[in-house]
Amino acid sequence: MLLPNGVEMDMFDHIVPIKVSEGKMIIGHFGDMDYDHRNPEPLLMALSDLLKDGVISGRELEVHFWGQSGRWKGRSLNDIVRELGLEAMVFGHGQVPHKESLARIKGIDVLLLLAENQPLQIPAKTYEYLLAEKPLIAFVDEGGATHLLLKRFDNVHCVSKQRKQELRGLIESISSGHISSVDREWSNQRNRNTGELSFAYHLKNLLRKMEQSNGQAS
User: Fold this and answer.
1) What's the pTM value of the predicted model, to 2 decimals?
2) What's the number of domains the chain is made of?
3) Beta carbons of 167 and 159 less than 8 angstroms apart
4) φ, ψ for residue 136 (rounded to 5)?
5) Any alpha helices (H) in 18-157, and if so which ranges?
6) Pick from 191, 135, 137: which is nearest to 160 by CA?
7) 104-138 per-position pLDDT tens digit
8) Phi/psi at 75 (nearest 5 deg)?
9) Is 5 among the domain residues?
10) For the chain, how many helices (H) and strands (E)?
């Protein structure tokens, strides 16, 4: 039996938000990206296309990454940003203490999760994001463990290999400040009960299963 990840439900209590910029929609990713499956390039390419078409600009939208950069085909995050001409819109930051990351999570508008090509694993950061109750863009494997968790919550917008063509419209909605809270095609019923994210909830379920298993064995 496995004990899933979870969070302390008071994690964001008494955390004062840190604002990045006033008057702009801010998308933020938190966590190291030194893994192949945390690849920001699809998002950055969509941003670049919209920028070239004059649909968005750095005056109304910024994307920030906190954590260690990875390398994709030999290129770092900053390399890709320069290649795509996104220097005025996309910013990479180093690692920050956990308490500061919580304050920044509270202070931005939309959270970003990069979790493709790991269908059996749910990143621990997912639980913090859901507890923050912010709109969330999640690059996930359709039908994978992370997708199955996220689709039970409101304000989650999942992007998979099959749905990346919809990313452009989603970014446009964020830039204009109109991001829908319901993705009806993926799930018509979302569970608003964030209590299911807690360590205590998962521990209670694990103990119940152990008792049932012991009862069957006897």
Assistant:
1) 0.81
2) 1
3) yes
4) -135, 130
5) 41-52, 77-83, 98-107, 125-132, 145-150
6) 137
7) 999 999 999 999 988 988 888 998 898 888 899 99
8) -110, 140
9) no
10) 7, 8
